[in-house]
Design a protein that fits this description.
InterPro entries: Ribosomal_uL10 (IPR001790), Ribosomal_uL10-like_sf (IPR043141), Ribosomal_uL10_bac (IPR022973), Ribosomal_uL10_bac_type (IPR047865)
Function: Forms part of the ribosomal stalk, playing a central role in the interaction of the ribosome with GTP-bound translation factors.
Helix content: 55-70%
Keywords: Ribonucleoprotein, Ribosomal protein, RNA-binding, rRNA-binding
Shape: elongated
Number of helices: 7
Protein name: Large ribosomal subunit protein uL10
CATH superfamily of the largest domain: Ribosomal protein L10, N-terminal RNA-binding domain
CATH architecture of the largest domain: 2-Layer Sandwich
Strand order of the largest sheet: 2-3-1-4-5
Family: Belongs to the universal ribosomal protein uL10 family.
Distance between the termini: 102 Å
Number of domains: 2
Largest sheet: 5 strands, antiparallel
């Protein structure tokens, strides 16, 4: 690979890292060709881009970004590295890895992930990453919590109004009788 080709790959990776706030670095070295193709197919179906790149190129691409990825140098960027990019969903790749591991025991390992600038290192972080909530889910929960007291007050006022109308009707019927 020439220097120009390496520079082009580094530039493309830098652009992908900058454009995708969610990426996972995995080790799928234990997979056969058929299982690798199955993993790539599942990634494609889930809208996840999966690329295999040399660690030195990944390191140089990460160095061009504003965030600090120096903690990836030691344990994450050694050995076989595949990167999973998803532009919108931070837990999509983690969920895919967990589902893939159900059928293929210990075939793929999470080495590290970056979720909106937060770094997660090690395969043991997979469960936490798969339970992350998206920004839309969090906003929905907050709105639901904010609306809850108002709904309770409105419900109480409406039920109180119906009770008052029933009492007035009963009193007017008693007066008429």
């Amino acid at each position: 690979m020439t220097r120009e080709e390496k520079a082009l790959i580094i530039q493309e990776l830098s652009e992908k890292f900058a454009a995708n706030p969610f990426f996972y670095i995995t080790d799928a070295s234990g997979l056969s060709v058929a299982k690798t193709n199955q993993l790539r197919r599942k990634c494609f179906e889930a809208g996840i881009e999966y690329v295999v790149v040399k660690n030195t190129l990944i390191e140089k691409a990460l160095a061009t970004l504003d965030a600090d990825y120096t903690s990836f140098k030691g344990s994450v960027l050694k050995g076989f590295s595949g990167i999973m990019f998803h532009p919108e969903n931070g837990k999509a790749a983690a969920t895919l890895i967990k589902d893939f591991l159900k059928d293929n025991k210990e075939s793929i390992k999470l080495k590290g992930a970056s979720i909106d600038g937060g770094l997660y290192i090690g395969h043991d972080q997979l469960d936490a990453l798969s339970k992350l909530k998206s920004k839309a889910e969090m906003v929905g929960e907050v709105i639901g919590l904010l609306q809850s007291p108002a709904k309770n007050v409105i419900g109480a006022l409406q039920s109180g109004g119906q009770n008052l109308a029933g009492i007035l009707k009963t009193l007017s019927e008693k007066e008429a009788a």
